[in-house]
Amino acid sequence: MPQPAPSDRPGPDSVRERIMLATLQLVDEQGVDAVTHRAVAARAGVSPGSTTHHFSSRLDLLREAFRYYLDQAEPLMRRYAAPRQDDGATVAERIERLLATVVDREFRHGFVRAEYELFLFACTDPDLALDVRAWETRVVAAVAEQLEASGVDRPITAARAVLNMLRGYELERLLDPQLSTDDLRDRLAAVLRGILPAG
Questions:
Q1: Per-residue confidence of the chain (199 residues) as pLDDT tens digits?
Q2: The total number of structural domains that make up the chain
Q3: How far apart are the C-alpha atoms of 108 and 3, rounded to whole Å?
Q4: What span, in angstroms and rounded, lies between the C-alpha atoms of 181 and 108?
Q5: Which of 10, 53, 101, 159 is a Cys-bridge partner for 143, taking CB atoms 3.0 to 4.6 Å apart?
Q6: Which residue, 138, 92, 152, 114, is CA-closest to 24?
Q7: pTM score, two decimals?
């Protein structure tokens, strides 16, 4: 479960942000059905009137909390993907390290279950689905950029394949917390060997 303000995530700057963060924490711990104005207010440490002031309905609260998640998640992905000075690692090792770092961070400080709840919720909310698809496109592009720089043919398709593998790992780890980052690295190494050009 994410800590309220880990070192690489800014703390909430307003009551509205505190409410959205509390909503995501509830979703991550107990699922979407746990979200009520009263439960969110208690988690955020605000009055129930504050939640209804900022969000007219439970649906509005969930939508905006999920959009807040998307806004927070994308810059972190970009930051981890930023080029670093050459440390002697191979291309496969650099990409493997990037993706393993992102996933490991999400399990330590992020909202892994909340992200999957978001996808399911968006299936019934066309407006939110548009936002999720646009966000997904940008995440794929960030990974594809790394792959393309490594000489991968069809980098967008390859990036989608890698991200789909990551999602499978995340779901498995939600069910089996004994899985480790080393397990993820082993899987990434196998997939990247099949994607990256020889040599």
A1: 333 333 344 455 689 999 999 999 999 999 999 999 999 999 999 998 999 999 999 999 999 999 998 888 767 666 655 555 556 777 777 778 878 887 887 787 778 899 899 889 999 999 999 999 998 898 888 888 888 888 898 999 999 999 999 999 999 999 998 998 889 989 988 888 888 887 6
A2: 1
A3: 8
A4: 11
A5: 159
A6: 114
A7: 0.78
